[in-house]
Structure to design on (243 residues):
């Protein structure tokens, strides 16, 4: 049968955390009212040097090989292999909620062009909680600016979803962006939907779990300096693309 959902996972050397995500996907497929066969899983292997692709194939996922080292390129490469009517994207170090696909079905009405399931962090420590509070505060400051152009902007993260035809119409993810490509995609979707009277959905019933492993790698308080360092392309490459 033609799948209803294609879940695309960009992955670079994710042999350690990918099985955890795939376990959560299995639970969500089993819980889906349309049956597990309605969901295909695609791992977009972004030039990994470990067993990422082998693990994906052993677990029944399709593998798209993407040589260009950019998260946006990996997402687009996985989408090109997809057969589903609805495209979904999540990160390889995340864990999705068991009700993910039922929740997407619930919110993706004709008035909705796409959206995200939302997320929560996997480990709560002082540094991580305060970092996310800072980001939420920044969002509160920027929200009035966003609302001027995008009423009901609803920019969020987690499992991002949209209809494949709309993804193709906006040209997918912008591959020149080395980070924040997921935010840009939702902005592009919102622009497309505005003329149709559609808007983005921001669900909070089935949040994904967001990995805070960069805090383990770089320290509890490191992120307070990250926004000031993102002007350096060299820093962006090291922070997002090199271990």
């Amino acid at each position: 049968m033609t799948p209803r959902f294609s879940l695309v996972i960009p992955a670079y050397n994710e042999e350690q955390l990918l099985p955890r995500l795939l376990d959560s996907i299995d639970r969500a497929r089993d819980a889906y009212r349309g049956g597990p066969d309605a969901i295909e899983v695609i791992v977009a292997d972004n030039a990994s040097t470990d067993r990422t692709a082998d693990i994906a194939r052993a677990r029944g996922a399709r593998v798209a090989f993407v040589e260009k080292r950019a998260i946006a390129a990996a997402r687009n490469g996985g989408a090109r292999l997809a057969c589903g009517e609805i495209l979904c994207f999540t990160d390889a170090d995340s864990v999705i909620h068991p009700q993910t696909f039922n929740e997407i079905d619930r919110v993706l009405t004709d008035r909705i062009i796409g959206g995200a399931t939302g997320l929560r962090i996997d480990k709560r420590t002082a540094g991580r909680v305060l970092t996310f509070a800072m980001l939420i505060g920044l969002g509160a400051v920027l929200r009035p600016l966003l609302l001027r152009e995008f009423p009901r902007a609803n920019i969020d993260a987690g499992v991002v979803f949209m209809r494949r035809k709309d993804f193709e119409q906006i040209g997918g993810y912008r591959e020149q962006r080395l980070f924040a490509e997921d935010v840009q995609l939702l902005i592009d979707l919102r622009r497309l939907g505005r003329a149709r009277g559609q808007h983005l959905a921001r669900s909070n019933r089935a949040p994904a779990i967001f990995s805070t492993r960069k805090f383990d790698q770089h320290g509890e308080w490191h992120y307070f300096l990250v926004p000031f360092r993102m002007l350096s392309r060299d820093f962006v490459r090291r922070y997002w693309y090199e271990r």
